[in-house]
Each structure stands twice: as structure tokens, then as C-alpha cells.
Design goal:
single chain; globular; disordered N terminus; 384 residues; 2 domains; ten-stranded antiparallel β-sheet
């Protein structure tokens, strides 16, 4: 748990620490992982994920496993988008469902908000801001919030209760200082910015790429790996049977995919091809060999920020407690990470809630519309 929090927070504290750069030589990639950092704690490298395409020996159907991280270089997400466009079906990751009045629900919301803020502070792009999955290809293969919370224990709830205030206590002051620091250094040339951002990236990805934090994460949030992996395998087994589906893409977090690959290999699939793809440039960014772009504009640092992604824009106030999102097929307002008010307008419907759910039911008001079906629920147990 300690190492997980350190890796998330380190991006905000780090500026221009001098580290040894990676000497160019052939990279010895591991064979049983989907995530790898070519450097180490003291040497700059680059972060890679593995893409593994497997083919069923009898039917000829293909399943592509692509390791994902929630923040990366924009160039990586462009490659992912090409994979999305070329496959028949996408089994998407993402715990779904309504927010609720619980420590675990707020912890998930806050941690994901930290990922987004960390992306922009490192000159990276956000996954949700760069990728578009067509509605007809999209299948959510993940668990719901209620299903995940059913895996919690008294011990994990105590751990989450301790972790949440500690994370906020350490993260928020460092985010404020980083925002102010960037504001004061706006005059620096791009090469200096690239060096500074490369160091921030290093202190995060050196933890991510060479350390298996699964055990720590699963103890803090029970079911976040094994339980969700089983749901993914169940959905995959069902969807691959469809006659009009010949290729499926699974762009999931790298920690999930080794289990899925083993499952496929035991069920008649063979590895067709496998390759490693660069996700986050660190060493090559510091050397000036990677293009550098800033997607964040801010006014009154920490109080208001504007994020300009390739496929959506966001206005955030008070460390994302108030968030306004706008995209071609999506728009939304989010107050208090969705725990106070949440509004979403998407391609096939809309959703609105005022105060989160309690015991799976809306505490005050909830309205959902998907295509021609609509539901209104209010005051806990009244449904219309």
C-alpha cells in the first residue's frame, strides 16, 4: 500500500532531479508480463506494454490483448485507436454503476481524479480524452460498483478509511506547489520543460514497470484484480461465440492480462504474434527525441484548470470537485466526484443524479434514459 501511494504522489513532488540516462542497447523484454520499464530507479528508460494476438486453432477467431495504462503519450493512444477501428468488438474496462455514500466509492473517484491531474502535470494524455469506442462495438466487460464492494471486508474498509485522508493530505499540497512552480516557469523553453516532465514521469513509471503491486492493490480494494478478471473471462467466452464476431480487442490494464492470456492458451488459442509498444517516453523525452506537448492551461493554479485533450475538453475547479466535460458525443457536469450532482449526456441517452445512492438506491433523485427506455427513482425506494 505504501509503495502504491508513493508512486501516485511522486509525480507531483518531482522537478529536475538529475538521473543517469539510458544507454542505447537492445532491450531484453520479459516474456510473462504486459508492462515493462526499460530503466530502473536510478536510470532513465521508457515504459512499454505488450500487445499479444491469439488465434483459435479451430474457428480462426482472434483475440488481441493490449496492455493499457490510464495516462500515456498521445502517440500511444493513436495506435490504440487504430486497433479499436480494426476489430469487430471491444471488451472495455471500467467499473460501472452509481456512486454511493461509502469510503470505497469516494476513494475510487478521488484516485481516478488524481490520475487525470497527474497526466497533465507530466505532459501526458488521458485515456478517456483520446479514445473513442463506437457504440456498436462497445461491450463493458467489467463489474459494477456494487459487485466490487461486495468483495470488501472489515479489514479493507479500515485500510481505505486510513488511506483516503493520508492520500489527500500528502497529495494536495504537492499538487498546489507543482501548479505554482509550473506557473512561475512558463518562460522556460520547451527543452527545459521536457527535461522536468521526464523526471516526473520517471518517478512514477519506474515504480509501475518493475514492481508487481497487485498484492498491495488487491488487499486495499479486494476483488480489483482476480474478481474482475473472472468477469472479463466470462464476458469474453460469451461474446466470442457470436457468429458475426471474428476479432475481439481487450484493451485492459496490464496487471489483468496475464491471467486472460493463460485462460485463452488453455482453451484452444495459440499465440499468433506478440510485440512491445512504447507507452510513455522518459529517456527519449529527456534527450529531445520525442515531441513534447502541453495539454493543460491554467488560470489561478489549483483553483481552476482547463484541459484540452484531442477528443474532449474539461474545465475543473477546486481539484476536480467541480468538473465540466465537453466532447462531440458526450457532455457532463460532475460536482464532488459525482457524490453531490452528476449529469451525463451521451450518444444513446442521458443520466442525471442528485446525491449518490444508498444501499443501491438513489438517496434523493435519479433519472436515466438509454435509447427509448427511461427510469426515474427518488427517495430511496420509490421508482417510476
Amino acid at each position: 500500500m505504501k509503495r502504491v501511494l508513493i508512486s501516485l504522489i511522486a509525480v507531483f513532488f518531482t522537478s529536475c532531479t538529475t538521473l543517469t540516462q539510458k544507454v542505447e542497447e537492445p532491450i531484453a523484454f520479459p516474456t510473462a508480463k504486459f508492462l515493462f520499464y526499460s530503466g530502473d530507479e536510478n536510470v532513465l528508460g521508457d515504459l512499454y506494454v505488450r500487445k499479444s494476438q491469439l488465434k483459435h486453432s479451430a474457428s480462426g477467431k482472434k483475440v488481441t490483448l493490449l496492455g493499457m495504462v490510464h495516462l500515456a503519450d498521445q502517440s500511444f493512444y493513436r495506435q490504440v485507436q487504430q486497433q479499436i477501428d480494426s476489430h469487430d468488438l471491444i471488451l472495455a474496462e471500467g467499473v460501472s454503476g452509481k456512486t454511493s455514500l461509502s469510503i470505497s466509492s469516494f476513494l475510487y473517484s478521488y484516485m481516478f481524479a488524481m490520475y487525470d491531474r497527474g497526466a497533465n502535470m507530466s505532459g501526458l494524455a488521458s485515456q478517456k480524452g483520446e479514445l473513442t469506442i463506437p457504440y456498436e462495438k462497445y461491450v463493458n466487460a467489467d463489474v459494477t460498483v456494487d459487485e466490487l464492494q461486495s468483495q470488501s471486508s472489515i479489514g479493507s474498509l479500515i485500510g481505505q478509511t486510513i488511506a483516503l485522508p493520508l492520500t489527500i493530505l500528502f497529495a494536495e499540497p504537492s499538487i498546489l506547489l507543482t501548479d505554482l512552480s509550473d506557473g512561475l516557469r512558463f518562460y522556460q523553453p520547451d527543452c527545459k520543460k521536457a527535461e522536468r516532465y521526464a523526471m516526473r514521469r520517471h518517478h512514477v513509471v519506474s515504480q509501475m514497470g518493475n514492481e508487481d503491486g497487485s498484492e498491495h492493490l488487491d488487499s486495499l480494494i479486494p476483488g480489483v484484480l482476480a474478481f474482475r478478471n473472472q468477469k472479463l473471462q466470462d464476458v469474453l467466452s460469451e461474446q466470442i461465440k457470436q457468429k458475426d464476431v471474428n476479432s475481439i480487442l481487450i484493451p485492459w490494464g496490464a496487471a489483468h492480462l496475464q491471467d486472460v492470456e493463460n485462460y485463452l492458451l488453455k482453451n484452444g488459442y495459440e499465440t499468433d504474434k506478440s510485440e512491445w509498444v512504447k507507452v510513455i517516453a522518459v529517456n527519449s523525452l529527456a534527450e529531445g527525441n520525442e515531441p513534447f506537448r502541453e495539454s493543460r492551461k491554467f488560470c489561478l493554479p489549483y483553483i481552476y484548470t482547463y484541459y484540452n485533450h484531442s477528443k474532449l475538453s474539461e474545465h475543473n475547479m477546486l481539484f476536480q470537485l467541480f468538473k465540466f466535460t465537453d466532447a462531440e458525443n458526450y457532455g457532463g457536469v460532475d460536482v464532488g466526484y459525482g457524490h453531490i450532482l452528476k449529469y451525463q449526456s451521451f450518444e444513446k441517452g442521458s443520466y442525471f443524479s442528485l446525491l449518490p445512492s444508498l444501499f443501491g438506491y438513489p438517496l434523493l433523485f435519479e433519472y436515466a434514459k438509454v435509447e427509448d427506455e427511461s427510469t426515474v427513482r427518488m427517495l430511496l425506494f420509490f421508482e417510476f
